[in-house]
Amino acid sequence: MIRITVSYPNAEGKRFDHAYYQATHRQLLLDRLASHGLQRVEMDKALADGAGGKPAVVACAHLVFTDLAGFQAGMAAHGREIMADVGQYTDIAPAILISEMAP
């Protein structure tokens, strides 16, 4: 299994619409990428860092795929549409991490 983590750094004056992500963008991901091996999409709304202060990110999305090839094929087929929707919920440039999930 492969996890794609998309994190949105916390910065003054930036916006992130959690409701839009959950109601619309998440469904777009599921609709377009399920046939490419997307198993689930989880979303974290950051509340605080470990000391109770301002978190380093405002949100993280976790997309779990059966394999890396599926993610790559899905993004090749639908990436333009998916990325075009990002501006609807945020003006933050995301950081992306691809990792192999331990069994």
What can you tell me about this protein's structure?
By secondary structure, the chain is of the alpha+beta class. It contains two helices and four strands. The protein has helices spanning 18-33, 68-86; strands at 2-9, 38-45, 57-65, 95-100. It has a four-stranded antiparallel β-sheet. It is globular.
What's this model, at a glance?
With 103 residues, the protein is of the alpha+beta class.
- Please give the oligomerization state of what you see: single chain
**How much helical structure, as a percent, in the residues?**
25-40%
Q: Give a short account of the largest sheet.
A: 4 strands, antiparallel
Task: Give the ordered list of helices and strands.
Answer: EHEEHE
Mean pLDDT: 96
Q: Give me the side-by-side strand order of the main sheet.
A: 2-3-1-4
Ranges where pLDDT stays below 50 over 5 or more residues in a row are none
Radius of gyration: 14 Å
Note the beta-strand portion: 25-35%
Distance between the termini: 8 Å
Give me the secondary-structure topology.
Layout lengths: L1 E8 L8 H16 L4 E8 L11 E9 L2 H19 L8 E6 L3
Antiparallel strand pairs: 1-3, 1-4, 2-3
Helix pairs in contact: 1-2
Key features?
single chain, alpha+beta, 103 residues
